[in-house]
Amino acid sequence: MKIIETKLPGAVVIEPAVFGDARGFFFETWNAERFGQHGLPTNFVQSNVSSSSRGVLRGLHYQWPRPQGKLVSVLRGEVLDVAVDIRRGSPTFGQWESVILSEDNKRQFWIPEGFAHGFAVLSDSAVFSYLCTDVYVKEADAGVRWNDPAIGVDWQVDAPLLSDKDTHAPLLADIAEARLPVFAA
Fold this sequence. Notes:
mainly beta
């Protein structure tokens, strides 16, 4: 397993060791001991899978005050996956990082608690997997507008297909401080 640091401290790309031959391939998607050795989470409490078609953009989502860390990967297809640091007081507040996740590269992206998350589907369809450190709590559900100009994510899709919730999410500057995570050094 290879850990690739990003410009957002704590958000890392994980390249698993893949073993393959003429029959196919095998790799570990999560191993508590190996993840723990790298300071990554060892306790996930919820697993989700979503399916989306080309051009679908989901995000930018987060939970507060019940934050979720997310280990994400793509089982089929290809997406541009994005994490945005929205922790008040963070030196990287409002900055984003993206990574291509695909069935071919088998990469994973660890998005720590306190970050907003989203993805855009670049292939004809994609099946997306999330392992979460906390359960979904409707009252804690929140979002940041996907095209907030102060953040400036390049989503690599021209006319994204959005949910009503994502279309009308607030700009980061318009979110009350009490609804944003706090940076803990």
